[in-house]
Structures are given as C-alpha cells and as structure tokens.
Amino acid sequence: MAAAAMSLVVSAGSHSVCVQAGKGFSISKPKGYKLGPRAALVEARPRVNGSQMAVQVLGGDRAEDLQAEARAMARAANASVYSPELLARKYGSRPVQVVKRTLEILIALGSFALKLLLDERNGTLDQNKRKRAAELRTIFTRLGPTFVKLGQGLSTRPDLCPPEYLEELAQLQEGQNARKFKMLYADKEDILVPDIFWNYTSGKVLTMEWVDGVKLNEQAAIERQGLKVLDLVTTGIQCSLRQLLEYGYFHADPHPGNLLATPEGKLAFLDFGMMSETPEEARFAIIGHVVHLVNRDYEAMARDYYALDFLSTDVDVSPIVPALRDFFDDALNYTVSELNFKTLVDGLGAVLYQYPFNVPAYYALILRSLTVLEGLALYADPNFKVLAASYPYFAKRLLTDPNPYLRDALIELLFKDGRFRWNRLENLLVQGKKDRDFSAKDALQPVLKLLLGPDGEELRTLVIKEAVRVTEAVVLGTVVDTYNSVPPFMRGLMFNGNGNGVLAMRAGELELMMELRDQVFRIWGLLRSSENFDPALLQPILQVLQKPEAHSLGGRVVGGITQRLAARLLQQVL
Length: 574
Known about the structure:
single chain, Transferase(Phosphotransferase), domain 1, four-stranded mixed sheet, 23 helices, elongated, Prot_kinase_dom, protein kinase activity, ATP binding, UbiB_kinase
C-alpha cells in the first residue's frame, strides 16, 4: 500500500493533517491544500508558539478509543483461556456490568440495523452502502476486540457482504495488524511502528502517524544522517527473529519501501497488509534445528521436519539423512556463522525437492523476509552474513528460555559422550551478551532448575562427574603455577632430582587440563562481568555436589580428587 500511496497535507488554523490516499481515491485540492511526497500518515501539529494542543484535532472520540483499547487489553491479559465456568463466576456477581455491556451492544447494533431498515424503506439502501459500511467499521472498532475479529472474518466473505462493506472491514484487518505489531514489538527503543487514527480511516484511506525517514536501500541518504545501514539491518534481523521465533506474528513483506530509517536511528515498519504467523511448535523446532545443525546431528535434523510440518509423521526420514549429511558436511567446512543464508536455503531446497516435503506457507514467507534483509545488508557490505548476525539471538534464547524443548536442546548442545563442552558454553555466553536483551541472571537457569528436579537424575550424574574434572584441573593448575614459580635450581631438590616434577605427564594431558581450567576461568569472568549476575544463582550446583549421591560415585568428588592428585605427585617424588 505504501509504495502506491500519496499523502495530502491539510493546513487548518493552527494544525496540519496528512491523509494517505490509496489507488483509485481522489480528493479535490481547494485553496490551502498541499500535496506532499510521503506515505500513509496523519499528524496534528500545534503552532510553535501557540497554546492549542493537537488533542483538539483528535477530539473526544480518539480519547475514548484509547481508553477502550486500554480496557480491552487489560481484559485480554487475564482471559487467555476461554472458560464458560470462569466467565459465569466472574460476571455472575456483576449483573449491572453485564446489563450495561449487553445494552451497549444492542444499542450499537440495533441502531445500525434500524438505519438499514429505513434505507430500505426509503429506497436509499444502495446509495448509502458506503456510508453504512463506514459506520459498521466504527461500531466494530468501538465495541472491542471480539467485534473487530468478527469484522475481520466478514471481510473475507464476499458471499455475505457487499463490496463496499468488504473494503471498509478490510481496513480493520490492516489496522489491527498494525496495532498488534506495535503492541508486540515497539517496546524496543530502536523500533518504530506508526499509530492508526481510526477517526480518519475509511475503506480507501488508512490514516497513520507521520514518520520522517529514508528507505533502507538509500545508503547515501542514510549515511548523510550519520547512520549506518548495517546497524539498521541488524536491528531488522533481530526484530524479525523476535517476530518469527518469539511471538510468531511477523511482517511478511519487509521490502525497502516498508522499512524506513528515521533521523533518530530507529527502524520504522510500514504497511501491515501482509502478515503471517509461525506455529508455536515450529518456533521451538526452528531453534532446535539450528542446534542440530551446529552439532551435525543429521538424524535429529531429519526428525525436526515432523515438528516443522514439512513431513507427515508416517514418512520414514532415514533416507533423508544421507542427503542432509552430503550437503551440510560440504557446506560446514566453515562455521555455520560464515554461511551465506541464500546458499544455505538453495542447498537445503535442493535436498527437500528430492523427497515428499510439503513446505508450509509460513516457511516460504520466513525465507522471503530474511532473504530481503540479507539482500539489503549485502548491498551495503558484500561480506555480511545473516546467520552470524542471528547468532546472539539464538544464543540468548538457548541460555535463558525455560521452554522444555529449548532446555533439552541446550543440554544436547553442551554435553556429548558424558563430557561437558566448555567451549560451547563459552561461545554461547560470548554471543548471547551481544544481544541487548540478554540477562546473566537468567542464563542457564532452566538447566539449573532441572538439576534439582525429579527428572534431573541423569543431568546430576553428568554435573558431578564434570565437577571432578574441573576441580582436578583447577588444583593441578595451581600446583603447576606454583611449581613454575620456583627457581629452576630448587626444583630438583623439591622433587628428588626430577627436574620435570609434576610436569611429567602423558603427552598433551597437561595441556588439556590447563585449557580446561582456563576455559572455566574465562566463563566465570564472562558471567561476573555481566549485568545482574549474582553468584548465588549457581547455588543448585553446590546443592547437587552436597547430595549423598555425589559421594557415592566412587568417592570421586571428595576423596577421589585428592587421591588422584596425590598419586600423581607421589609418582614423581618416588
């Protein structure tokens, strides 16, 4: 809509009002009207030195709309699950409120029905169709979300509604899309979503807040404002990931005309006519798919296609595994973050084409959305990688999301063959800290809570064994550091003429132990340097190590560590 639109600036007294005119809509231009080049906006501006405020232009209806919206949102926050029993209990003791709401609905719809009846009797039914359609849209908007949904449903039923009504009710859809998008994503300071002005909106005109900005593909104009295209594209990618994988409600048409860079450095989204949703199960499966890709677990990747709704559950995925292995083993000669998104999609598409895959509509729109953003980034920097820019978000979600699916994916990523992969945790923390929403106090909490739960027995065993390795590495590292600080001529005396002392270990063993210690210290430093981190958050680990089962594992946690270290030292002395 935005690309084909023009705006009309109306000067009236101390204020100016802009209205977008869509295709096929014409307005006469009397004296005082000026045509402007911008799209889809309205704003009431007071005089610089005047005392009148823009609220006078909006009038009481706008204030009532805002109050009604706030009340509706408050009600919706406590009504996520429909329950007749709950509603009966809640409103059974509020008969006055029920009667008042019933009268409000009956009066609004009854008066509209009466107007239609009078139009029919007067022979003006066809003549007044557009007028009545606009009135019905206003009624639905003021009656709240339930009736807005009803209007959206009717907008897709040409068998029930005349074209004039379909046009008006369709505005409910896009307007509500914009309102929902703003509610979900405009909480970030670098994202701007324009408001809808319903009192100035009709079937052919969607009136929105004015936004000053430059299209995202106009690099030179953006840089003249002191901004960087890549920063804005990265903001777009992070917001898109939230859309796709957090709430599942996403803008499916993010081309340059619908993305503006504002002078303040914000990324503004326009045109909410094409939206889509990612199913909840698919959101978690996509993140899990990335984990399986990093782990090169192609069997698990193939099984992910069930949750992604690519395959029916009765399809055998075993023949798909070799095809995935052949493609990704070649593609992953570099790290995943260095892969070009288009190359990855094209290669995966070639694999999917060979098998009975059914690509859902939401997935095609996701690919389109991310491909457009990557194209904008590559225009500014040919070396830009969307997957690398996406890593911080994935790392943050894996480290902090309490969803059981993602919690298990994190455990799968961190543990392999009974060993903890400290390098993976370090990388996740490094990347996660790059996400502005990362909170160290939430990091690893889903896993730590599982440690003490009834389902955490296997995890507790792994943690106890890993505690042995870490403690041994720290103690041994301290001994080695102490040994290295002793003058060379004294080492022979201390170790009975053996100049190598505690360093006489199997080839590479010492290096591995020292690297483990250093990794643990680096991870501890990452956590301590993070905002809101409290060491007490790691209390579950200490509680596990104090359990009787920790001491029963061959006595390794307490006496076992000392015994093994003593054996190594005595071996050198004797």
